[in-house]
Design a protein that fits this description.
The protein is mainly α. It has ten helices and two strands.
């Protein structure tokens, strides 16, 4: 090989490597941008078959109990209770409740928040698409997916997805499976108290129990029931659970 050819070889290899890096970056960027949008468009009309969390838990030896139920068939008690417990301003925000997040930061003790500040949309994005650990990468993807969900889906569908995918205990996913597991009845027949107990265990469903609640869980359920009677128009974005005077 001539000296000129020898000198050109490293430069050629660098160009090839750089092209491969660019292709990998473009592929990753396209996957990050297009895959969530594609799946969200599918989930607008179809029920998600399974979520990453379900797969991870199943690999770990847990079962998988989930029965999809349309929001108009699950009654008012459960949807109203999770909004009252998890996201009072669900009908008002675009996926992020900055006021609530500020309060969580203000209440942080020793650099660890005492409670979460995620909205129902953020939790739905995490449950449908992401893995259950904390990192800046995951939070960045969650923020993007949250915004896309708010742009592409209405509030009714977001709440419907959330209530059908949220974890209520080891191997228990969705409000229908939770109602059957804890109270031996369909979600549509849950009382306000029972729905409040299910909402009360959501911050830690793998350790708390809705059918055998401790004093703290019981008090929280009472608070949730009271809130559902006070939020009024804050339910109006979901007609199936909209406030009606009785």
């Amino acid at each position: 090989m001539s000296e000129a050819a020898t000198a050109r070889a490293p430069a050629t290899r660098r160009r090839v490597v750089w092209r491969l890096v660019r292709l990998a970056w473009l592929a990753g960027y396209g996957l990050f941008i297009l895959l969530p949008v594609t799946l969200i468009s599918i989930y607008e009309v179809a029920a998600p078959p399974i979520t990453p969390l379900m797969v991870i838990r199943a690999i770990g030896g847990e079962g998988l109990s989930r029965d999809w139920v349309d929001i108009e068939d699950m009654g008012q008690a459960a949807p109203r209770s999770v909004i009252a417990s998890e996201d009072n301003h669900f009908c008002e925000h675009w996926g992020f409740d900055w006021g609530e997040l500020t309060r969580v930061i203000d209440e942080t003790d020793d650099d660890r928040p005492r409670r979460g500040g995620s909205t129902i949309t953020q939790q739905t994005a995490k449950n449908l698409f992401l893995w259950p650990n904390r990192s800046y990468v995951r939070k960045a993807i969650e923020a993007y997916v949250t915004l896309m969900m708010e742009l592409m889906l209405d509030k009714r569908r977001i709440l419907e997805l959330y209530l059908n995918e949220i974890e209520f205990g080891p191997g228990i996913y969705g409000i229908e499976a939770a109602a059957q597991h804890y109270f031996k009845k369909p979600a549509a027949k849950l009382s306000a108290r029972e729905a409040g107990l299910l909402a009360a265990i959501l911050p830690n469903p793998r350790k708390l129990s809705a059918d055998k609640p401790g004093p703290k869980t019981s008090r929280k359920a009472n608070t949730i029931v009271t809130r559902t009677q006070q939020l009024g128009p804050l339910f109006d974005c979901v007609p199936e659970i909209a406030w009606t005077k009785r």
